[in-house]
Amino acid sequence: MKQEFKPVHGMWASRWVFILAATGSAVGLGNIWKFPYITGEYGGGACVLLYLVCIAVVGIPIMVAEVMLGRKGGLSPIHSMQRVAQQSKVTRRWGVIGYLGALSGFLLLSFYTVIAGWSLYYVWEGASGVFQGASAEQVQAVFADLKASPWMMLLCHTLFMAMTMGVVARGVNRGLEKAVEILMPVLFVLLIVLVGYAATTSGFADGMRFLFAFDFSKLSGEAVVVALGHSFFTLSLGLGAIMAYGAYMPHQIKDSKTGKAKPVSIGSTVLVIAVIDTLVALAAGMAIFPLVFSNGLEPSAGPGLMFESLPLAFGQLPGGALFSCLFFILVACAAWSSSISLGEPLVAWLVERGWKRWRASLLIGALAWVLGIGTVLSFNIWKDDTFLMGTFFDNIEFISTNIMLPLGGLLIAIFAGWIMKETQARKELAMKNFKVYMLWRAVVRIFSPAAVIFLFGWSMWSTFGPDEEPAKGPPAPVEQQQPAPARAADAPADDARVPAVSEGGVNE
Ligand code: PFF
After folding, report:
1. How far away, in angstroms, is 334 Cα from ligand 1 center?
2. Which residue has the higher pLDDT, 478 or 334?
3. How many angstroms is it from 106 CA to the middle of ligand 1?
4. Does the Cβ of 401 fall within 6 Å of ligand 1?
5. How far is CA 220 from CA 34, 164, 217, 290, 475, in A?
6. Region 11-38: what's the mean pLDDT?
7. Rg (the chain; Cα; Å)
8. 8 Å CB contact between 32 and 330
C-alpha cells in the first residue's frame, strides 16, 4: 500500500545553515580525538596525505550521494529511501538503507554520548586545576578513576544524552539550527585560540613537521584501511545523519545580487563541508602535537593521547588550567553538534509517523541511554565479561562502525549510482559542469563501492582471519592493530601503558 508522507520538519534557513549543521555533524570526536591519534600512530604526514586522498576520492562522492538522496526524499532517511525507490520504480525495500542507517546511528549515539560525557568531566577537572604540575601517574589516575566509576560515567552520559535530545526535541529550526549557530562559531574560535597557544610552545616546529612532513616509508596497507574508514566516520557517512540533514536543505536560494531564485548545488556545498571538516582535523593536530612535543611525550600515544598525554602536557605549561578547560569545552561542543545528528533520523521518522517531536526524542533518548549503560559498565563492572568481539561496548562499537557504517556507505553508493533514475539524480544534484557530474557518477558506481568492499573485507579479515585470536579480551578492530603504549615521559613502563581504544572509545 502506498503511503504519502508530508514533510513536517521544516527547512534550514539557508544554504549556509545547512553547511553549518552538516559540518557540525562531521566535526566531532573523530576530528579532535581520533584524527590526531591515528595520525600519531600511523606515521604523521604520510597518514595525513592518505586521509586527504580518501576524503577526496571516496568521502566526498558518497557524501554528495547521501545528501542527494536525502534532499530528493525530503523526509527521514527511512521514508526518504522508500520514497526515492518508489520514484525510481524499484521496490520500496530499498528503504532498508534508511533502517540500517537509523539503527546504526542509534547504536553509535548510545556510546558516543558516553565518550563525549568524558569531555564534560575533563572540563570540570581541568578547571579545578587537577592537572597543574601533575605527574604522569596522577594524570593517568584521573582517567583510570573515571573509567572505574560507573556512577560518574553514568552521570556524564546522562548529562550528554539530555543535552543531545533536548536539542533534537526542539526541532530543526528552534533546536538543531539554533544549536549549530552557537556551537560552531564557539568551536572555531576555541580552535584558533588553542592553535595560537600551541604556536607559543617550544614544540610547535616539531609538531608541524610531524603533521606535514610526508615520509612515505611509514605507509602501510593498514594505514590505507584506517584512513579510508576514518574518512567515512569523520564525514558522518553511511548512518543516515547526513541524509536526514540533506532532507532539510533548500532546493533554491535567492541570489543576493539579482534577487532571483537559483538552485543550490549539492556538489559545491558538500565540498565546503568536507574542506572545513578536514581543516578542523588538521587544526586539532596543530593544537595537540606541539604540546605533546613540548613535553617530550610520544605522538604515538594512541587513543590515550587526548585523555592522558594532553592533560599532562597542559599541566606543565603556563596557563595550562585555563587552556585545558577550553580544550575540553571544544571537544564537548564538537561532540554535541555531532550527537544531535545521530538522534535526528529516528526522531524524524517517528514524527512522520504521527508522534510529537518531544515524545519521540524522549523515547529515542531513553532507549539510547539504557543501551549506553552497557558501554558505561564495559569499563568497570563488566570489564571482564567478554564475548564475540570483547566487551559489550566493543561489540556495539564494532557492529556499528566496522560493519553497519561501511555497509550503509556501500548501499548508498550502489543505489545512487545504479538504481536511482539518472535523470532524477542529475536534476537533484544541479551540477553545472557535466564533466564533473560524469566523474562523480563513475566514482560512485565503480570506485566507491570497490573501496568500501576493500575496507570491509580488510576489516573482517584482520578481525576474523586465520591469524587472529578469537575474542580473548578486546579484539583488534582495524584501527587498533598496534595499541601503542603511551608513555608519559617519566612514567614507569608498567604504569604508563595506555588502554587500547577502538573507534568510539577506550577499552582496558
Ligand atoms: N563525524 C563524527 C565525528 O567525526 O566524530 C561522528 C559521526 C557523527 C559519525 C554522526 C556518523 C554520524 F552519523
Report:
1. 10
2. 334
3. 12
4. no
5. 18, 38, 8, 25, 20
6. 93
7. 22
8. yes
Residue 263, H or E segment:
strand 261-263
Which amino acid residue places its CA nearest to atom 12 of ligand 1?
236
Amino acid code (one letter) for 83 = R
Determine if ligand 1 sits within 6 Å of the CB of residue 266.
no
* 300 CB near ligand 1 (under 6 Å): no
Q: Is the CB of 496 under 6 A from ligand 1?
A: no
Percentages of the chain per state (helix, strand, coil), in multiples of 5: 70, 0, 25
| 339 pocket-lining for ligand 1 (C-beta < 6 Å) | no
Kindly state the greatest CA–CA separation across the chain: 68
Ligand 1 centre distance from Cα of residue 109 (Å): 9
Give the separation between CA 439 and CA 430, rounded to whole angstroms.
14
Q: Residue 434 contacts by C-beta under 8 Å, 6 or more apart in sequence?
A: none
Average pLDDT over residues 383-389: 93
28 Cβ closer than 6 Å to some ligand 1 atom: yes
Nearest to 285 by CA among 302, 299, 303: 299
Cα separation of 465 and 437, whole Å?
A: 39
- Cβ-contact 71, 80 below 8 angstroms: no
- For residue range 45-54, list pLDDT tens digits in order: 888 898 999 9
Residue 263, phi then psi, degrees to nearest 5: -65, 145
pLDDT band, residue 1 (cuts 50/70/90): very low
Query: How many angstroms does the Cα of residue 495 sit away from the middle of ligand 1?
Result: 32
The string of pLDDT tens digits covering residues 83-124 is 999 999 999 999 999 999 999 999 999 999 999 999 999 999
Reading the block at residue 270, the C-alpha cell is 558538500
